[in-house]
TrEMBL record:
<dbReference type="InterPro" id="IPR016181">
    <property type="entry name" value="Acyl_CoA_acyltransferase"/>
</dbReference>
<feature type="domain" description="BioF2-like acetyltransferase">
    <location>
        <begin position="152"/>
        <end position="292"/>
    </location>
</feature>
<feature type="region of interest" description="Disordered">
    <location>
        <begin position="1"/>
        <end position="26"/>
    </location>
</feature>
<feature type="compositionally biased region" description="Basic and acidic residues">
    <location>
        <begin position="10"/>
        <end position="20"/>
    </location>
</feature>
<dbReference type="Pfam" id="PF13480">
    <property type="entry name" value="Acetyltransf_6"/>
</dbReference>
<dbReference type="InterPro" id="IPR038740">
    <property type="entry name" value="BioF2-like_GNAT_dom"/>
</dbReference>
<protein>
    <submittedName>
        <fullName>GNAT family N-acetyltransferase</fullName>
    </submittedName>
</protein>
Amino acid sequence: MLRPQELDEGERQRWRDLRAGSKAPRNPFMEPEFTDVVGRVRPRARVAVVYDAGEAAGFLPHERGPLGQGRAIGLGVSDCQGAVLRRGLAPDPRELLRACSLSSFAFDNLEAGQGLFVPAAADEHATYVIDVARGYAAYEEVLRARSPKFLKTTLAKERRLGRQVGDVRFVFDERDPAALRTLMGWKSAQYRRTGRRDRFAQEWITRLVARLAGTRAPECTGTLSVLWAGSRPVAAHFGLRSATVLACWFPAYDPDFARYSPGLVLHLRMAEAAAAEGVGLLDMGRGAAEYKDSLKTGELPVYEGAATRVGAGAALHWLGREPARRAHGFVRDRPRLASLAVRTLRGAARLRRS
């Protein structure tokens, strides 16, 4: 059991090699660099190293709470979670939790194919993806065939933005810290406007994103993309990039330019730039949204739930999370209730601002 910073380079390389040998997409949230940065802002972060025949054969990054209640590393912000195991290695999950002194291991974006923990999942969700493996032109052809009005309208708005505001340009990998602060400001305002919990009001998340913005590794690079109109940024996104996957994370736009749909334009340009860089998949994460339905080429499953072993900690986990999760699922699966919940959140947000 190690703190993330205590892993030596041999162990980190072994972790990378195991991911390279996996059949799963090379999501940067599953790389040692992400766990390392989480460990620098979350003091309870740990990595269990599983040995087989004297060789490091698996890693379980996690955070440890009271009474051994465990959670996936970065739970609440990480969009891909689970163990990193040598193919064919299948430790008993309860024995693994016992060895880690964990009473439970909670997850909300468990990677598909995680045979160790999928049986403990309570819910399956869809994460929405854009496949650009055959190039951006091929992706545009998919959009034209499936939703020609959407693509035509979005491109027309991009041209109108250029005529009415200023020349449109796109930077895929912006390094200016001021641009990141602008994005965080937009995103915080969006959270408050829609009645959501402001993630950037939590210091550890702000510190995490700032550190990841400076992370440059082949399979985990912080990537800030910005859409400009003239001298003004109108939309931006911060995510993580591996050689083959762009994990879309924090997109936002300036609401003063909403009529131009700058967020949609931004995603099209991100897909174009990612394809040019050899990235084949953009993962937009779980959670239904109209823009995701318009842009997606497919869906992948992710799982929510918790693996537990008998004890007080497991009971506390159930009491602390399960009732709220079930209530949320009940509302989510009923469109009329979900629509009412969204309107209620927005109404409450307006009242707080007034």
